[in-house]
Amino acid sequence: MEAWYEVQNINQLASPALLLYPKRIAHNIELLKSMVDHDNSRVRPHVKTHKMLEVSKMMIDAGIDQFKCSTIAEAEMLALANAKDVLLAYQPVGPNIKRWQKLILAYPNTQFSCLLDNVNSIQALNDAAVEINKVLDFYLDVDLGMGRTGAAFSQIKELWETIRQQENLRLQGVHGYDGQINNPDKEVRKKEADSGFDLLQKSYDFLQEKSDQSLKIVVGGSPSFTAHAERKNVACSPGTFVFWDWGYSEKIPEQKFKVAAVLLTRVISVINENRICIDLGYKAVASESPLPRVKFLNANDAVPVLQSEEHMVLTVDDSHNYPVGTALYAIPLHICPTVALYEKVAVIEDKEYAKDWQVIARNRALNI
């Protein structure tokens, strides 16, 4: 029997390649919505995983109109898809402040906001707003324990004093990312997510009391989504859900998303009776984690033992089962940086390679 991932016209695809399955993507989008009771205001998906115009449009067509992104190129991709509300989950610095100005002026139908977490950046963005005669939106980024970006709760009062003096900035709410949460135990993850959220809620309460408009809360990523999805007053920001991967399917088993992105690779050399080599080097799959970096769907006995730029060596029970040219399908451990390695992906519809989608936002700049 053919498995769901197999492609009938596989000879039309050179390897290594990244394959996408739109029906599975659509399933994942609908499952995401169901996890927040189909209240689309409670999800703000992060597009860093897919970086594709077509996938963004699938979410918009499903009724999701607010998004989060990591780069100005991703923000522009969302504007090209006619997204209504785009949060750049990054603090513009240096020349990116000018790019941010240009983006906002070029796409007036999209409401843009960014993150800020310090006095100097708040003042710099206000100066940029004055230059273009606009009021610019932002979220105050709060550190929930990851220690990467965001202000400590002890700094919130000082930051508010600066914020209220800026006439061309508008505080939209607070943002927190708890990327340090990855325990496979659901209950442990919930306790950690609740603890971090308490900091965010305290920050929100302090600022809401001072503010004359209703503020919003944006929180979390994929591992903490299970916990945050139960909160009625927040927008959650998972990203990996759209394609899913081997890593999160192991760590977050209660989230029943389907794998919708698969790597195609082929045997290029038979080394001996128990070793083969495939064309899946670390230029074709994210390599920030130790081996194994993939799970093979049609080679249960294959174990990666060596990888270089263009090659991966596997041990197998019997190499006679894997002659040169054999096509293998694999799920990456981490899909987000894997997608960024490809200029385009192969779209699989009804088991046929149908077309390509460009991974346009892997570029650091589109038009701006």
Brief write-up:
This protein is an alpha/beta fold. 28% of the residues lie in helices and 24% in strands.
Describe the structure.
The radius of gyration is 22 Å and the shape is elongated. It is built from 10 helices and 16 strands. Strands 1, 9, 10, 11, 12, 13, 14, 15 and 16 form a 9-stranded mixed beta sheet that branches. The chain has a 7-stranded parallel beta sheet with strand order 2-3-4-5-6-7-8. A hairpin with a 4-residue loop joins strand 12 (303-307) and strand 13 (312-315). The longest helix has 25 residues, at 186-210. It has 368 residues and is α/β, with parallel strands linked by helices. The model has no long low-confidence stretch (mean pLDDT 97). This is Threonine aldolase. Keywords: Lyase. Residues 260-349 form the D-serine dehydratase-like domain. Belongs to the DSD1 family.
Q: Layout of SSEs?
A:
Blueprint lengths: L16 E4 L1 H13 L18 H9 L4 E4 L2 H9 L4 E4 L7 H11 L4 E6 L2 H13 L4 E8 L12 H8 L5 E9 L8 H25 L5 E4 L5 H4 L6 E2 L9 H6 L9 E12 L2 E4 L15 E3 L6 E5 L4 E4 L11 E6 L2 H5 L4 E6 L2 E7 L10
